[in-house]
Amino acid sequence: MLCPLSINALTNKGGNMQKTIARLIMVISLMLLWQSYAIQQTKYKIAVIPKGSTQNFWKAVQTGVNIAAGASKDIEVIWKAPQ
Question: Is 1 in a helix, a strand, or coil?
Fold first, then answer.
């Protein structure tokens, strides 16, 4: 059981307990919304910089990277081959 002294200690700064609880609920809900938004926006970027672009080896590497990245929607491949 709360004594009146502890209730007054919570509300002695000009606000009442209902406003304090409402603000606390709003802050917690905004934090949860922000966290779920941040988790959904996670996208990985993988940069591949091969030594060449005309050799069969690097063409095979590019094909493999594109197939692996296509399996997941959270991966973006940046391919920077020399001209």
Answer: coil
Q: Which of helix, strand or coil describes residue 35?
A: helix
State the amino acid at position 37 in one-letter form: Y
Long-range pairs for 31-35 at CB < 8 Å and ≥24 separation?
none
CA distance to 7, 15, 53, 68, 78, per residue, from 59 (Å): 71, 68, 7, 14, 14
How confident is the model over 9-45, as pLDDT tens digits? 555 555 678 888 888 888 888 887 777 766 666 778 8
The CA distance from 16 to 20, in Å, is 7
Q: What percent of the chain has pLDDT over 70?
A: 73
